[in-house]
From TrEMBL:
Protein name in UniProt: Uncharacterized protein
Transmembrane segments: 41-69, 76-96, 108-128, 140-156
Source domain of life: Bacteria
Annotated keywords: Membrane, Transmembrane, Transmembrane helix
Length: 177
């Protein structure tokens, strides 16, 4: 019983920090992507500490609470995509650890990361450009946006790996884990 209480309390604090990050993204416009990415990293912390099901529940709770509290709903969508991406890559990492051969390799994991990202990003990019204008968007702008997204994924992913592998790993004992 004590462990469940601790789990709920910790997840509640992480959820509060998530919502603060999303709300601050609306206030501090120059750091919006950084704050949304940091908020989505809490999904990874909950997954690492309590498992995939808890992480999925945490993400859902974060999205629903952000819909109610956030002044800018577009930031909620961005947070949802980042959190969902983290949930999917953590799921892939979890199940690839049980596999053997090439599926266990780092190259396979990176390939899956780019595949998952592009399945989420490309349709969103097409929808975004179609909202901006009724006429067809120039192919060059779409291609540049797609390539820039790959760069952003690389930066996001390296930052996430550093946050989880270095910062959280070194500080998790302060929370009793």
């Amino acid at each position: 019983m004590h462990l469940n209480t601790k789990k709920i309390a910790f997840a509640g604090v992480m959820l509060a920090l998530t919502e603060v990050g999303i709300a601050l993204g609306s206030v501090i416009e120059t750091n919006t992507l950084f704050l949304l990415a940091a908020a989505s990293f809490f999904v990874g912390i909950v997954i690492q500490e309590f498992g995939l099901k808890s992480g999925a529940g945490f993400l859902l709770a974060g999205i629903l609470l952000a819909i109610l509290l956030s002044p800018n709903k577009l930031y909620v969508v961005s947070y949802a995509f980042m959190g969902f991406y983290i949930l999917i890559i953590e799921t892939i990492w979890h199940f690839s650890g049980r596999a053997s051969g090439w599926i266990r390799s780092r190259n396979f994991f990176w390939l899956m990361k780019y595949l998952v990202f592009n399945v989420l990003y490309i349709p969103g990019l097409i929808y975004f450009w179609s909202m901006l204008s009724e006429k067809k968007t120039a192919k060059g702008i779409m291609l540049m946006s797609a390539v820039f997204g790959q760069f952003i994924l690389f930066v996001f992913d390296k930052t996430y790996e550093y946050a989880m592998g270095k910062i959280w790993k070194e500080n998790r004992h302060k929370f009793g884990f």
